[in-house]
């Protein structure tokens, strides 16, 4: 019984640095490290990524066409419901209110009834604004969305929005694009991770097609769907958004969705105001989320089937719409008017309050529609109100109400969803105002901070968290991927010789010394190369005759890992091979035994991570090395 030594001789390496292939099998060597099973070294991308990328590009084009089709469908439903005409033009229901009078109340009710029927006998998954449902499928169901959602979601959303629902088209299109990506991922032979990428690519492409905001769409996919930032997922999603936005340019042009007049860069005082405004909006976003889910809880207590809830929500939408026609429909023109200062102080306050009442009750009723546009309207109106007030009371601060509206619009989304980067980039891309970037960054970060302090879950995650889904809230680098096997393995290894008999080894184990308490022992040949590993249980198994040599007892080659591998690769290899320990071989000489890595060693490596995260100490001492002067 010996301990591995770093001076053991080894044969020339058969594995080159950076190779992604396992060690080759050498038939003439028998049971040795030439036949060892080693984990493949991970690479950033491979040929499969190219395949998924090609599919994603096609998916991006399809998502843009679906987005165009959905907006046309919303136009058809709106024109039929409010104007009695057949047209795909994107019309505002507000203009029909004076003509319809109180009949306008019935239109959203009918839409809610239809959506309720579709949800009950079609799929309950069409309820809500789509993103939480997509997140749930990513986290729990290997991104497998039922194919029928691909057409049920856009149709139900078009009916809900077209009959006056105070929602945006972006949520349903994001959900539809994700469902299409998932469907393609179920048709093709792909892994669960690749299917998730296709789902995220379709969802992001849908958002990019609606708002002509490809970068924000990519960031949205990272923050809310992928839960990772890797080249193999980022590349397909990014190119899908490029394809989607390019298709939109061909169909609708490249102008900003919410075009604004030119604004100037803010001064220091104005910037401070925008940051404080963001913090205020962050508080509003928290209470907005709580109220929406509080209303949903109230609907849960109703003594009627949930199929009827959207009709009740539609009744509220209709009544509010009668008194405040601008709350009906998607309201993209409202956002543009807010950002350009076209609404008076009274109009802003009225729109903000009435839109919130209509949207929160309708969303809580479980109908089908998006949250982005309503949040932008509410936050933008509130920001404009504060901006106008400060500009009137303290003009010396140099606050521009239009920038205040822009900050309010983005900050409420950043606070409600905690998709910070998405909110900043989205507001910039949809307005094309570089002077607004710094106020956006400050305001959205302040809202994000307040939201994180006051609220554990978000408007995107609260629903699925209540159903027991654990949603990642922080995306950090895998600690196990940062630590090498050579740093964590046990190098003082007790080894056995292949020529020893079981009788000898069993007598040695009976001595009950420290070296005999291990659960596994590498077996070496006469040239000090590893032939395999025998467990203590195998060595003491009575079915094996005591005259057998250890070499005869080996049944499979060693399962090995190089000291250059990461602990993540080692852990994955253990799972794949169903073992609890791996032989560690040299980086430059794969025949040389370096040590043993066990599951316990991998867990122990986390002690350093926990220490870095929890232990606080002062390390910089200005008086280090100074000695007191001797007395004179």
UniProtKB/TrEMBL annotation:
| UniProt cross-references to Gene3D superfamilies, sorted A to Z | CBS-domain (3.10.580.10), Clc chloride channel (1.10.3080.10)
Quote the cellular component terms of the Gene Ontology held in the record. Answer: chloride channel complex
Which residue stretches, if any, does this entry annotate as coiled coil?
none
TM stretches of this protein? 49-80, 100-119, 197-222, 234-251, 263-287, 307-331, 343-363, 375-394, 406-428, 434-454
Region Disordered: start-end pairs: 1-27
Topological type in the membrane: Multi-pass membrane protein
List the subcellular locations.
Membrane
Q: What is a GO molecular function of this protein?
A: chloride channel activity
Q: What is this protein called?
A: Chloride channel
The organism encoding this protein is Rhodanobacter spathiphylli B39
